[in-house]
Design brief:
The protein folds into two domains: 238 residues, Rossmann fold; 145 residues. It has 19 helices and five strands. By secondary structure, the protein is α/β, with parallel strands linked by helices.
Length: 418
């Protein structure tokens, strides 16, 4: 059973109003860096999957727009169905340029449309260097002997395509820089900021191409990039393409100018915000008025103990709310136990099912819970002993304990009681 909470609203006039992760300071620090850095900056916003990168980028975008910096946005995950991210990057830029009808914009749009086929020719030096491009650049083997080009003809064509691609790149970068200066003259502030989100969710070859295209084609004075990524996972993707012995860190250092690591989310404010967002109080009311406080206490304790990311917190709180709303009245179990088991299911599903089948005892379950960054698992005095006692009671193999475990599993998994 999954639950997806809506993204927070980021309003232009008050972007931080719903910022329960309290990112205002980090957003403003990075916006200052972007404004003060000379030329072009490619900045990586680095955090684990689910740690709030997308929300951070949306807040930063609103902050930059509020200070009159034009912005663009590309969701790399949504665009990785195309082979070459150049198409997606140019499409976003073309859509943005089209909204500005002046002569310079029209000229840049014309240049953009002229550029694409020339930079995508497989023989071009500026085409992506990812393994496989050389094979695509080879002379066609299917052609008949009479039609097949000679080595000299094929070599001449490759040189010509390289020259055209090189010239296209020069013209495009000059036109892009000229357009940025025009926008500045019209009252906009530089840099123009291009945001790229969800890079760590893309297929490996596409993620690498995105970075290479940005570095070699779009990084001109007056235009900066902010890219959301999980740098560790991206490093694995690079090695998957170039080989396990490849130095992915050195490679990324060449493509990125600045790294910005999002700090871990701490404190109880976010958990309470999620509880309100999913209607946990109303879900608990039909069972136990005290259940909401118990669920929040369990999740808050596990946030620091197991370093739960914001996305995992959101999913767990949402799932608990759904289960409490939909479980039959006769399914009796403490909300604190449900909350702990939902968190375990999201972290280690095999342990969750092993416990509910009676194959694993409460001691093993609690050892896993307390095996996080810090321990032990601390709860309010009136809640901790009750929860532990219930977990140990449930772990008995036969009789009423087995029935309770199965009822709890059915409720948590959204199954009708047997």
């Amino acid at each position: 059973m999954l639950f997806k909470a809506e993204p927070i609203a980021v309003k232009a006039d008050d972007p931080f109003r719903h910022d329960s992760l309290q990112r205002r300071t980090q957003v403003r620090n990075l916006s200052l860096l972007l404004k003060e850095a000379p030329g072009s900056v490619i900045c990586a916003v680095d955090a684990p999957w689910g740690a709030g990168k997308s929300t951070f980028l949306r807040l930063l975008r609103a902050e930059m727009e509020g200070q009159l910096h034009p912005t663009l946005w590309l969701d790399a995950w949504e665009s990785d169905f195309v082979e070459d991210p150049l198409i997606a990057l140019l499409a976003e830029m073309s859509e943005w340029i089209t909204s500005d009808p002046d002569g310079e914009a029209a000229e840049l749009l014309k240049t953009t449309q002229w550029l694409a086929p020339r930079l995508r020719r497989p023989g071009s030096r500026v085409a992506s260097r990812i393994p496989g491009d050389r094979e695509r650049a080879a002379p066609p083997q299917e052609a008949s002997e009479a039609e097949a080009p000679t080595d000299e003809e094929w070599g001449s064509a490759q040189v010509r395509e390289y020259s055209e691609g090189k010239q296209a790149l020069i013209v495009f970068r000059q036109s892009l820089e000229r357009y940025a200066r025009l926008r500045e003259a019209e009252g906009a502030r530089l840099p123009i900021v291009f945001f790229v989100d969800e890079l760590d969710r893309c297929r490996p070859d596409y993620a690498i191409r995105v970075l290479e295209r940005i570095k070699h084609l779009f990084a001109v004075p007056g235009i900066s990039f902010v890219i959301g990524m999980n740098r560790e996972q991206l490093g694995h993707a690079i090695k998957a393409v170039y080989g396990s012995g490849f130095d992915s860190d050195a490679y990324l250092e060449r493509l990125l100018d600045v790294g910005f690591r999002l700090p871990s989310v701490k404190g109880e404010r976010y958990v309470r915000h999620l509880a309100d967002a999913v209607g946990l109080r109303s879900a608990c009311r039909r069972r136990d008025p005290e259940a909401e406080a118990a669920v929040i206490a369990v999740v808050e304790s596990l946030v620091s103990l197991r370093a739960l990311t914001p996305k995992v917190q959101k999913r767990c709180i949402g799932e608990v709310a759904v289960i409490l709303r939909t479980a039959p009245e006769e399914a009796s179990f403490p909300a604190a136990v449900l909350a702990l088991l939902v968190v375990v299911r999201n972290l280690k599903q095999d342990l969750y099912y092993s416990y509910l089948r009676g194959e694993t005892g409460a001691e093993t379950l609690l050892d896993f819970v307390e095996g996080g960054m810090s321990g032990p698992f601390t709860l309010p005095d009136e809640l901790g002993p009750t929860l532990r006692g219930y977990l140990y009671g449930l772990s008995r193999r036969k009789g009423e304990a087995a029935k309770r475990r199965e009822a709890l599993r059915q409720a948590a998994d959204g199954e009708a009681p047997s």
